[in-house]
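Example record used in the benchmark description.
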Amino acid sequence: MIRRILASALLALFPIYAVAAVHHTVRHARSHPPRRDPTLEHRIEAQRTRTRLLQYQLHLKRMQLHVATARVNDLQEQLDETNAAIAGVNQRLGYLGAEQRETQRRLIWYARQLVAAKRSLQLQDSLLRRRLVGIYEYGAPNYLSVLLAARSFSDFVESWDDFRLLIAANQRAVRQRQETAKRVLAVQQSLEANEIALQDERQQQNQARIQLGALATERSNLVGLADRDRRVIATQVAAMEDLTAAQEAQLEALIRQRQAEIAQARGIAGEAAHSNGYFSWPITGIITSPFGWRSNPFGGGPEFHQGLDIAAPMGTTVRAAAAGTVIMAQWYGGYGNYILIDNGNHYSTGYGHLSAIYVSRGQYVQRGQAIGAVGSTGYSTGPHLHFEVRINGKPVDPAPRLIH
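Model output (structure tokens):
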């Protein structure tokens, strides 16, 4: 989480000055320097200071928004984990309930079997007792009594065998019923112990569900509070963005006025930049991030990418995409080392994350002229060129305007 917040703190790119082109920017100045307006220069610098202060405040507020967004995401993840745990407990409770019902069904069946076995055993015991009472009262049958009672020798053999088989059968039946009763009783006791264990586990699972439910409610409330704070900060960011845009528009107007004064002082005899809306590739490379909405590379959700990211090795020469006058050549917030060129006809081009700057403000450059080198300064994930095309200060997609 800390790594995500630190990365998010590097996210917000400062908006750049919206600069319109001047129709008659010349390459060669007259021998005498252009007339300067100290009051206008002072106003421009003062406006630059106000704009930079607002940009810095906006940057801090965006960092705050990203931290708030990260907190909402983390709390939501915790809530999702709790809900998943509740679902697991409910599933386990359902399984335990089914197992307990099956155990109770088997208990009922074995209880009936035990009752039947006991009844059979009682019947066998009763028969055996009556047999023993008869033997006690009338004496045990012996060889002689059976012989005297028989009408023939075959009757004697048959009666004697029946007598012995009856006694043996009674004894076996009693033993079998006793063994059956013991087995049924053992199974019944095992099932009763299993039922007790199932009841204990169900109680534990119910207690866990109650605790998890309370935790889920607490975390849901925290998510709601964190999301409310995030929305408040997002509203503040939107208001500051509008204010910053208004300040940049004022700065743009002052810069345009100053450029017009410089052009008038130099005259119109020189060569001026008049962009036709098509630009050369500033470097040769692969577009790694196009113009438009994208996932922020530092985390924190979607963002609008105002240019093209073109990958190239560190130190690769960056060339002017069109002729024009350098308006800015300096470190510029999240863009790192940055160059802004007025290309005429209300077009301007920007070059960010440079490792070196070869030109200076006010310098006129030709199309294809070396102006800097690829780097990874500012808020950058690796060596590449951030290239922008603007019309009247508003960013447009450079891709359809690039030619070889």
